[in-house]
Design brief:
The longest helix is centred in the N-terminal third of the chain and has 19 residues, at about 55-75. The chain is of the alpha+beta class. Helix 1 packs across helix 10 (about 260-275) and helix 4 (about 55-75) packs antiparallel against helix 5. It starts with a helix and ends with a strand. It has ten helices and ten strands. The chain is about 40% helix and about 20% strand.
Length: about 300
């Protein structure tokens, strides 16, 4: 019997979790994880985060830190050796990451072990909070019980399916951290205004994101500030052309700060998609900025999230 999309994506995520658990002593290959779900690495991370509560790399780092905490608590292994085993190249980098997660330095954490009484306090405080329930205990990753998130009844009602024609877009490329794409929008706006392109364009701006920020160095992330234009519009120098393919699309709307867009994508990809009976299509995902952040209060910002669906 052919699996449903929910079981398909859940099975792919479960396989990925198991693979992460087996790879604590080696670097994680995000591309290999994504292949099992027939998704790009970018889309797979969104599905994974929505179902698990953290990305594969975040899960990998957390489990390594939990194992390191156990080693600090139970062994006399040197801190530098533990740091290397957790994937950190320097003692200092490990100390910063450990302090951020456990609120204290590795050395201070180890010192607490000397006076710790399990009879009074229970298990040592080596486990970090995680929605999925996957943790390191006694040196090994415990996969059971593993809890995947599932959408509530309201999720289905905030997603609209549409058949859309192809869109011709005028673009300006941004190379670097995604939150800095505003610079590309400024350039696009200036060039469009100078050339009269706005007379042949729709008012809303949109952004196309091409790379996975979890696996691509921030300086190498590619994105496009874009404006939908008429077929007969002449594009001025400095502006490139791209096509957003037509077909089936899912749209949801995020209201509020742009900082919440990551969570909105995780809900769409990790909650709605597996339960919807749909799979991701070949078109690029994109965001449409319906309101102008220069004149709209942060809480009133409206952003459309568009996800391409397979036929």
């Amino acid at each position: 019997m052919k699996p449903t999309t929910r079981t398909f994506y859940e099975a792919a995520v479960l396989r990925a979790v198991e693979r992460v658990a087996r790879s604590l002593d080696e670097a994680l290959d995000p591309d290999a994880l994504a292949k099992g779900a027939a998704l790009s690495t970018f889309h797979f991370h969104r599905v994974f985060r929505g179902l698990v509560g953290e990305t594969p790399l975040e899960l990998h780092r957390r489990l390594r830190l939990e194992r390191a905490a156990e080693q600090l608590w139970r062994t006399s292994t040197g801190v530098t050796e533990i740091a290397f085993g957790a994937g950190y190249e320097t003692h200092e980098a490990f100390t910063r990451a450990f302090r951020q997660s456990y609120g204290t330095s590795p050395s201070a954490f180890r010192q607490r072990a000397a006076g710790y009484d399990p009879g009074c306090h229970g298990e040592p405080p080596t486990v970090l909070a995680a929605a999925c329930g996957v943790h390191v205990r006694d040196g090994a990753v415990r996969l059971a019980p593993l809890t995947l998130r599932h959408p509530g009844d309201t999720v289905q009602h905030v997603v609209v399916l549409e058949n859309r024609p192809a869109l011709r877009v005028a673009t300006v490329r941004h190379l670097g951290p995604y939150p800095e794409i505003a610079e590309a929008f400024h350039r696009l706006g200036a060039l469009a205004s100078e050339s009269g392109l706005y007379a042949h364009a729709r008012p809303a701006m949109l952004a196309l994101y091409h790379d996975d920020p979890e696996t691509t160095p921030a300086a190498e992330l590619r994105s496009d500030a874009a404006l939908v234009v008429d077929e007969d519009a002449v594009l001025p120098p400095g502006i490139s052309e791209a096509t957003v393919p037509g077909g089936r699309w899912a749209k949801t709307v995020h209201r509020g700060s742009y900082a919440g867009l990551g969570d909105a994508w995780a809900r769409l990809m990790g909650e709605w998609l597996p339960a919807s009976g749909n799979r991701v299509g070949a078109g690029p995902s994109y965001e449409v900025y319906v309101t102008d952040p220069r004149t709209t209060a942060t809480g009133d910002l409206e952003t459309e999230l568009w996800l391409s669906l397979a036929d």
